[in-house]
Amino acid sequence: MPLHRHLTKGREIARTAGDHASDMFVPLAVIGRGLRHHADWARTRWQATPQERRGPTLFLTAATLIGIYLLPHGLLFALIALMASSAWAGRPPKAAPAPPAPDVTEIKLSALYSALIPYLGGPEEANPLYHFEGSYKSAFSSWEFDGEGRLSRLELGYPAYFTDTEPAARARIEQVVQGKAGRAREYRFDWDEESNRLRIAALTPLATDIVAQHFVAAPGEIVLGFTDEDGTARTIPVSQGGTTAQQPPVVWRTGPRSSEPHLLALGVAGYGTSSLLRSLALQALPYADLVVIDGAGTGEHACLVNRPGVYTVETSLHGALAALEWAAGETDRRLAALNAARHAGTAPPEDATRPLWLLLDHPTELSELAHAEGRPDPQDLLELPLRHGRAARVTVVIADDIEARGRLTPTVRTTTRARVVLGPAGPEESHAALGAPLDIAPAAHAPIGRGYARIGNGAPVRLQVPTTVDPLDDEAPPQLRDAVIALLPHRDSRTEAVPGTPPRPEHPPTTPADGAPGAHPVDLGKTEPMIRSRPIS
């Protein structure tokens, strides 16, 4: 047998013998450890015994030992008792208990209570709710945490002298609460001014995987995006993540019976105002004609060029002025045609009743350029479509940066009663843009397309715009680009006219004759007509 096999077998035998020996000598080691504990205890007691009591102690010990010796089987019982007590005393010590886990509720609510003391505490108050020696249980009536240990609901009281009617005072409290509870989520703050109570609720994130698609809506209804279940009374089926789900939409009603015929969308740069315009254009194209003004000149709407139903897509100041002059004249022409048909008791002409949409992306940049060149402001040309657009079936949608709100004309700000704010704007900016205080604190890092909408005099609601990327953007995911391309109209699919309907004109309708008030003849014709005959859906 080779030497290495002898060595391996010898190691195995030694290891087995060691295991058996350890198993056999464990009881002896326990008893020996117990005897050592007994000896240490006896030595300690002997050293602690005073000198005058050591003699009697020795006498009693000797008498006890003699009594045990004289008893039948006394030594055996004494030995058994000694071994048992030694085994008990020499058993392995138990592991120290782990320190109790900190109470998350106690830590977070105490921190929030301490942070509110400088804002809600009054040193001159006799029995203050918030003071440095107080407890959060005196001010917080109810609270709730989610499965991850984050604060999801809280109700607290505040003193009567707190200025809860001032937006600045409210904003300070909301900022403190959001900072302590987590800035990654949105919170709804319900201020009960009558009972001096504040109810805070963390809102669940909105779905961000809804892409551009055909939405189930009535004629004249536009889906701006999607909101919470309590933000609307209806749901629509949408394709989401490869399946069909029911989502609550934010619906904007347009047309002659709409009380909010025009829309103003303001947002932080990079949060999807141009995507919102593309989404609105795709929804309006089946039944309306479009004029698109790209003031930024970035080519975000180049996918609409030469599409059926799109009169023109302008990026230059000269083209924008020409298109808006024509739109003003077209609005005047439509009003005249509709009034004449109404007085004559006949049906209005088709070219006066088909909706016309004016989509303006960053018009303030064109306004600054026009002021620098001494030319008319493009926003001034919107006065007639904005004021009389509802009667003339003209809808105006304006998208711009929230920082450029001060450069919008008063007519634009007063006539656009449907408002959208995208991105994490501040409380004051959101209040100015929406026209109402926002009871929701936005998250520090919001996804693209997340914002708030307010239609008319309604309350602001959360909004998530459908993902509508530029199909000409090579960096966009292919599936998102294909979804937009599938919604774009193509000329080869709209060449046959519906029987019994008048053919579509090859050019936009002309403006009123020379001498008519507000007439500005502008020829938008190009080398190739932008409009071709197509059925009216």
Helix content: 25-40%
Count of extended strands: 17
Mean pLDDT: 84
Uncertain stretches: 493-537
Gyration radius from CA atoms, angstroms = 41 Å
Helix vs. strand class: alpha/beta
**N-to-C series of helices and strands:** HHHHEEHEEEEEEEHEEHHEHHEHEHEEEH
- Strand ordering within the main sheet: 11-10-12-13-9-14-16-17
Instruction: Note the beta-strand portion.
Output: 15-25%
Number of helices: 13
Report the biggest beta sheet as strand number plus sense, adding barrel if it closes. Answer: 8 strands, mixed
Shape descriptor reads elongated
Quote the distance from N terminus to C terminus. 97 Å
What do these coordinates show?
The protein has about 525 residues and is an alpha/beta fold. The chain contains 13 helices and 17 strands. An 8-stranded mixed beta sheet has the order 11-10-12-13-9-14-16-17, with helices on both faces. The chain has a 5-stranded antiparallel beta sheet with strand order 1-2-4-3-15. The chain has a two-stranded antiparallel ribbon with strand order 5-8. The protein is elongated, with a radius of gyration of 41 Å.
Main features:
537 residues, alpha/beta, eight-stranded mixed beta sheet, elongated
